[in-house]
Write a structure and sequence with these properties.
- This protein is mainly alpha-helical and 263 residues long.
- It is built from 11 helices and no strands.
- It has 3 domains: 77 residues, no CATH class; 114 residues; 47 residues, no CATH class.
- Helix 6 packs antiparallel against helix 7.
- It holds the Pfam family Retrotran_gag_2.
């Protein structure tokens, strides 16, 4: 609001209470001109203040005749008296001091939180320099930024460092760590997929068919294995004719029955 009035050269009307010296008995043209200009500025300042106020507050200002009266009322309405302002400033300073960076918070978001609190303190007319924000950031960051802070302390005077410069320097560390963590998670995810999808440990390949789903000793007795020629399980097609394939099957069956009787 103060900057808005200053942009129209009207803040002086608030400071001087908008008082225009009365005209003498026989005023000159210059005195009349200054008197009229003074009154115009006073009413411009009143209009500028009233245009930014809600209707509920505006009804309370109907009796105010000068910009100074309106300004004082708004300060008491929104900021309170001197005692309440002091209490609010102390509460904000306490809130600023207890701030810490959260576990998964970005450095930019953390600094924005600190800046918001510091701006609220400044609204009450209290001086609050950026160097205090820099100091707060340096002493409250987690351990992962320790090496970068040490290098910054060795290379420059951090008390004169700008908040944005500090944020940019720390963001480099943050981005590198994020990229490295992302690669580690990616590698762990890729390594985990085979074990989760199959639920089995890979066995060495079969010496006959070169597949990994069974051992070589189980090749001829694997139930799912079928000959492409005779369509029967227990052997692999290695002969050209169906007749030869049947002979292999009956010979194997006879051999198996004989070994069973001996047992």
């Amino acid at each position: 609001m103060k900057a808005y009035l200053q942009s129209f050269d009207l803040w002086k009307e608030v400071e001087e209470d908008g008082k225009v010296p009365p005209l003498p008995a026989n005023p000159t043209l210059a005195q009349i001109k200054n008197y009229n200009e003074g009154n115009v500025k006073k009413f411009k300042a009143i209009n500028a203040l009233n245009s930014t106020i809600s209707e509920n507050i505006l009804t309370k200002l109907m009796a105010s005749e000068t910009p100074k009266e309106i300004w004082d009322f708004l300060q008491n309405e929104y900021l309170g008296n001197d005692q309440s302002r002091l209490k609010q400033v102390l509460n904000l300073k306490r809130e600023f001091e207890i701030q810490k960076m959260r576990e998964f918070e970005w450095i930019k978001d953390y600094v924005d939180r600190l800046t918001t609190i510091s701006n609220k303190i400044r609204l009450f007319g209290e001086k609050f320099s950026d160097s205090r924000i820099v100091e707060k950031v340096l002493v409250s960051l987690p351990e992962k930024f320790e090496s970068k802070i040490s290098s910054l302390e060795d290379s420059k005077d951090l008390s004169n460092n700008l908040v944005n410069d500090l944020v940019n320097a720390l963001q480099v560390v943050e981005q590198r760590r994020a990229i490295r963590d992302e690669k580690i998670i990616e590698q762990a995810f890729v390594a985990k997929i085979p074990s989760e999808s199959t639920g089995k440990v890979k066995s060495p390949p079969c010496g006959i068919c070169k597949k990994n789903n069974h051992a070589e000793k189980d090749y001829w007795f694997k139930g799912k294995l079928k000959c492409f020629n005779c369509k029967r399980p227990g052997h692999k097609q290695k002969v050209a004719s169906l007749k030869s394939c049947k002979q292999i099957w009956y010979k194997r069956k006879k051999l198996f029955s004989k070994s069973w009787r001996e047992v």
